[in-house]
Structure formats: C-alpha cells, structure tokens
Amino acid sequence: xxxxxxxxxxxxxxxxxxxxxxxxxxxxxxxxxxxxxxxxxxxxxxxxxxxxxxxxxxxxxxxxxxxxxxxxxxxxxxxxxxxxxxxxxxxxxxxxxxxxxxxxxxxxxxxxxxxxxxxxxxxxxxxxxxxxxxxxxxxxxxxxxxxxxxxxxxxxxxxxxxxxxxxxxxxxxxxxxxxxxxxxxxxxxxxxxxxxxxxxxx
Length: 202
What we know:
Blueprint: E1 8-13, E2 15-17, E3 25-32, E4 37-41, E5 44-50, E6 64-67, E7 77-78, E8 84-88, E9 92-98, H1 103-113, E10 119-126, E11 131-135, E12 140-144, E13 147-156, H2 164-197
Parallel strand pairs: 5-12, 6-13
Antiparallel strand pairs: 1-10, 2-3, 3-9, 4-5, 6-7, 8-9, 10-13, 11-12
C-alpha cells in the first residue's frame, strides 16, 4: 500500500446497494460533519472534528475511488468519467460509485456485499490556516474548518482506528503541532525578555 506522507486519512463506512440492473453500486459517507472522532493513544486523547463548510473551497475536480489508497491498484471508479459521484449535503460528503466491470472490482464488490470490506477512507490536505487546535490538560482537540484538496476516496480492508501506521500518524500530527506551539511560546518569551531589557512598551 502506497500512502503519501503529507496526506491525512480518515475512515467511514460503505455498503453495497441492491439494484435490479445487477450493477455494482456502492455508497456511503466519506466525510461526516460535526461528529467528533476521538483517538486514544496510551494516556493521550486526541479528538478531531471536521466542521460543516470545510468542503466549501475544496478541490474535488478529479477524484479516484481506490482500494486501500493504493496507487498501484487499478482505479475502481473516478469522478472524471462520472462513475464516481461526490455529493456534499448537510450530513457530509456522500459518495456513490458504479464499479467498472473488471475482475478486481468484482472481487472487491463481493467482499463488500459479504461485509468483509465495510469501511472507506479519504485522503486530504488541510488548507493553510484551515484547522484550529485547543490543548487541554487531558485532551487535545482539532477542528478542521477548510480542506484544500481531496486526493481520493478508498475502500479499505483495515479499519482506520486499528491500523497502526495510519493511526499513529494522527499523533505524529499532534506532536508536530505541539512542537510548533512550543517554539512559538519560546519566541514570545524571548521577545518579552528583550522588551524588559531595553525598556519596551510600558
């Protein structure tokens, strides 16, 4: 599985859609707004919420449906040829896809029908200034207010919360933000010291 390190991934559910034409149709919400997701890592707690309006300026021009975010796997559907539809509504981002008739898609669709694959994920980048962090004593929260680009939506066979490599990435992000804030705090302390030393604003 190939996952670009600068892209974040989150998990939602997906299901097969019964239909009389025997088409391979799947649908689900790739993103749900205003529903906090809490990640527990030892004694650390990290809660993230994607806010309504986060997709207002998102680049979703050419989005593929993949398997496990794997860019070496044959693409299952795509917005460009209208086999994948992305719908932003009050709940979040709903996806509907008609899978192309290939052996790999037939195998994946059968696994979805059987409930062996019942989760999907989406890969995205947050816009500059598009998230807000709050650091509490026992919990850190992050609100995502603006997503710059949606890279893909994927059906996945390993749940996001159980996948060590992706799960740990949330805490890498948390630690990176904490370090950034620590460095800003250190700069502010130095500014105050200089202000006192040289008789700044009184």
